[in-house]
C-alpha cells in the first residue's frame, strides 16, 4: 500500500510536469523549415504535393483564388473539374487537417522520394 504522503508527492510531481513540460528544451526543435506565412490555393496544393499541384491553375480559377472556398469544396465539384479520385482524396484529407489546425504547408516544397 502507498502512504498518503508518497501519493501526495507523486501527484505534485505529475502536476509540475504537466504545467511545465520540458523546461529548457526548445519546443518542436525537430522542424527545420518554417511554415508558409500566407497560404493561398497554389501554396496549399504545392504543400500537399504528390501530383496534386498539377491542378493548381484549374482549381484556383474555379474557387476564385480563395483558399477558404477550396477548403469548403466537396468531392463532386472536384470531380466535375476533372480532378482524379486519388488527388481529390488527398485535397479533401489535407483540407480537413488544415481546417483543424493539424497541418500547414511548408515554406519550401519537400522532396518526394
UniProtKB/TrEMBL annotation:
<protein>
    <recommendedName>
        <fullName>Small ribosomal subunit protein mS41 SAM domain-containing protein</fullName>
    </recommendedName>
</protein>
<feature type="domain" description="Small ribosomal subunit protein mS41 SAM">
    <location>
        <begin position="41"/>
        <end position="101"/>
    </location>
</feature>
<dbReference type="InterPro" id="IPR019083">
    <property type="entry name" value="SAM_Ribosomal_mS41"/>
</dbReference>
<dbReference type="Pfam" id="PF09597">
    <property type="entry name" value="SAM_Ribosomal_mS41"/>
</dbReference>
